[in-house]
Amino acid sequence: MSTLSLAVRDSTTMLRRNLLHARRYPSLTLNLLLTPVMLLLLFVYIFGDTMSAGMGAGADRDAYVAYLVPGLILMTIGSTTIGTAVSVSNDMSEGVIARFRTMAIHRGSVLIGHVIGSVLQSVLSVVFVGVVAVAIGFRSTDATALEWLAAFGLLVLFATALTWIAVGMGLISPNAEAASNNALPLIFLPLISSTFVPIDAMPGWFQPIAEYQPFTPAIETLRGLLLGTEIGHNGWLALVWCLALTVLGYFWSKSVFDCDPR
Length: 262
Known about the structure:
By secondary structure, the chain is an all-alpha fold. Helices cover 76% and strands 0% of the residues. The protein contains twelve helices and no strands. It has helices at residues 3-24, 27-45, 48-53, 61-93, 96-101, 109-135, 145-172, 176-182, 185-191, 207-211, 215-227, 234-259. Helix 1 crosses helix 6, helix 4 (61-93) runs antiparallel to helix 8 and helix 11 (215-227) packs across helix 12 (234-259). The radius of gyration is 19 Å and the shape is elongated. The two termini are 29 Å apart. The model has no long low-confidence stretch (mean pLDDT 84).
């Protein structure tokens, strides 16, 4: 069997293993998924009228729902990948990886299985949050089939980038609690992006922090694709961030996995 065939076979096996774990122990995924859903309901029904007033004349709760949903969708991806960090840390600390190292399997298949499984869970989580958003009034305006396809591609690419970073965080964590804490920036960063309010409404000294981070360009690009707003330079910035984080997370995870004796 060729190296490629071996890698595909073993990665598929590891993917099946991770999906079975997610199905048997869904509490972690559900807990992480509830965070963006609760934020969506909170900001729409409790703060919606107040937040929409800051968006300019003529803005109402429906306008704020349209503004909020793209950011919450990407926040959902960040929340879901925290489960990946915890799962990887559990595998490392419980000795499963040590047993895998003694078996005749492709070395990288363990991590690849985690990444693909997490990306699939992220996509399903996004679908769930999207259904909730549609139920409370979100509507995409004049998005073409090509723009929907581009939006889906952006979500998959963003999920892949964050997942590789989460895998690295899980590998360096001594236990599940530490992995969850190390991965908190994946939830914290959307809170200081353009998810809830426009960048222009933030203090001048804080605007560069919110603008030049991974989530804001991706959020603005997704808004542009779904709502027809101006994308500008955010499109290529989002692409650069996704590719850079994917490469960084892959080589970081591979380096730690190859050297970690646990």
